[in-house]
């Protein structure tokens, strides 16, 4: 006789049938609605805000008996986070040649960075534990491709309306003595471009919606591969043409940004992709690259873009400052090689004299930020060898672990990580660049778990 299954009592739900799936909205909401967060004055603050429900949902899933996976090589990231916390012990130290401050005066910036690192850790774990039914990899790729389109639109806005800015709702709600602080203003005040004198005369350099021109350039390189993958997967010819049009238009703000690091990063990215495709036997890439190079050369020759590139290459005003800050970062690393100083420091004066500092007539004179000119230098200076090894070890392990993934996600994700290693020489990664790096890592990780998506 066939046994009869026991029925649950009326009004109750068996524990095994509870819905403990992870909803897509925390991740999709950050990406899809980022223009709204930026305009509202939340911007990068949306990451720690969304980390709260993501953490709750992960804990709820674990309490229901569902396994929470950790990304491959996560021990390296734990080492990095531990070094970030331990380095706070050196926060009161004033390395030679830096402005003296109390540890308490540095806590706000350090607490902000620690909160962001924690939030992006939650984002990494949450995105990696999503299933195809909850948030498919194809949809996540499309969302990241949309962020590239948003970056291009923000770049065009910065070019045509460089002085565009407005007071956000969050900014309005803050007390005047708080919202007028430079650090707080950079978080909550939306603007289209940074106005700088780089090639003679003040000109706008695209920044929207990422806050800084360097962050804009960093995100451009990290997101570019995802637009190509999304277009590759698209079945409609119209969408492919729109993607090609977006790529063509993106050259304009990329050049106007005067961002040499971006130009180097894109070249490195294309070279890496070409090598991966050749190794996979797809030698047609060797025909495509010269065609792209030729088209770019024609565009630079026949338009004012070529003049802009030449002017930027002839004006290396930032070279001296960068060399000065790298030297200071390495000197500081030698002074505290294990855990660093817990955060960045401001130099006494400028690179030529300790008497040259900020003033009402020259706000950008002197008092440069040691560790503010590249993620690598910040890691060495702020968190020492332990933090640097943990951070680099995590992403390097990911590149090695997923090296055999020849799918579009495998190549695009690893290309994004490779470009980030170049970018860390001149760009800082917090907040959005590191967010896009961990999402690339999550996609590579999910591709390994769920099987490669090839078409």
Automatic annotation (TrEMBL):
Keywords: Membrane, Transmembrane, Transmembrane helix
Residue stretches spanning the membrane: 36-59, 68-90, 110-128, 140-164, 216-234, 241-256, 262-279, 286-305, 380-400, 421-444
Coiled-coil segments on the chain, per record: none
Highest taxon of source: Bacteria
Protein name, entry field: O-antigen ligase like membrane protein
Species whose genome carries this gene: Actinoplanes derwentensis
């Amino acid at each position: 006789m066939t046994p009869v299954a026991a029925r649950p009592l009326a009004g109750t739900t068996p524990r095994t049938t509870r819905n403990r799936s992870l909803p897509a909205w925390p991740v999709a909401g950050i990406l899809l609605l980022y223009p709204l967060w930026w305009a509202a004055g939340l911007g990068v603050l949306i990451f720690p805000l969304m980390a709260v429900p993501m953490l709750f949902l992960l804990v709820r899933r674990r309490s229901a008996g569902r396994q929470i996976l950790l990304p491959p090589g996560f021990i390296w990231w734990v080492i990095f986070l531990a070094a970030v916390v331990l380095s706070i012990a050196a926060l009161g130290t004033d390395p030679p040649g830096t402005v003296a401050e109390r540890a308490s005066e540095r806590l706000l910036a350090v607490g902000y960075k620690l909160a962001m690192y924690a939030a992006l850790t939650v984002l990494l774990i949450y995105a990696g534990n999503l299933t195809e039914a909850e948030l498919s990899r194809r949809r996540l790729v499309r969302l990241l491709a949309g962020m590239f389109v948003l970056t291009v639109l923000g770049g065009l806005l910065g070019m045509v309306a460089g002085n565009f800015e407005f007071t956000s709702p969050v900014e309005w709600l803050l007390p005047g003595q708080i919202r007028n602080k430079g650090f707080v203003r950079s978080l909550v005040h939306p603007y289209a471009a940074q106005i700088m004198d780089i090639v003679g005369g003040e000109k706008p350099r695209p920044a929207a919606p990422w806050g800084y021109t360097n962050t804009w350039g960093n995100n451009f390189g990290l997101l570019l591969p995802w637009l190509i993958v999304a277009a590759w997967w698209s079945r409609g010819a119209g969408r492919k043409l729109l993607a090609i049009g977006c790529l063509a238009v993106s050259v304009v703000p990329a050049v106007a940004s005067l961002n040499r690091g971006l130009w180097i990063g894109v070249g490195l990215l294309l070279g890496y992709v070409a090598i991966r495709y050749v190794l996979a036997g797809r030698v047609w890439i060797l025909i495509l690259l010269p065609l792209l190079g030729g088209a770019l050369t024609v565009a630079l020759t026949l338009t004012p873009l070529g003049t802009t590139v030449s002017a930027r290459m002839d004006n290396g005003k930032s070279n001296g400052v960068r060399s000065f800050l790298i030297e200071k970062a390495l000197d500081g690393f030698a002074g505290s090689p294990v855990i660093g100083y817990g955060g960045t420091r401001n130099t006494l004066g400028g690179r030529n004299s300790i008497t040259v500092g900020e003033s009402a007539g020259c706000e950008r004179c002197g008092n440069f930020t040691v560790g503010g000119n590249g993620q690598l230098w910040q890691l060495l200076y702020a968190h020492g060898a332990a933090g640097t090894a943990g951070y680099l070890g995590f992403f390097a392990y990911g590149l090695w672990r997923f090296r055999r993934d020849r799918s579009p996600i495998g190549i695009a994700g690893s290309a994004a990580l490779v470009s980030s290693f170049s970018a860390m020489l001149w760009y800082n990664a917090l907040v959005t660049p590191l967010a896009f790096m961990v999402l690339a890592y999550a996609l590579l990780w999910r591709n390994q778990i769920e099987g490669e998506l090839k078409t």
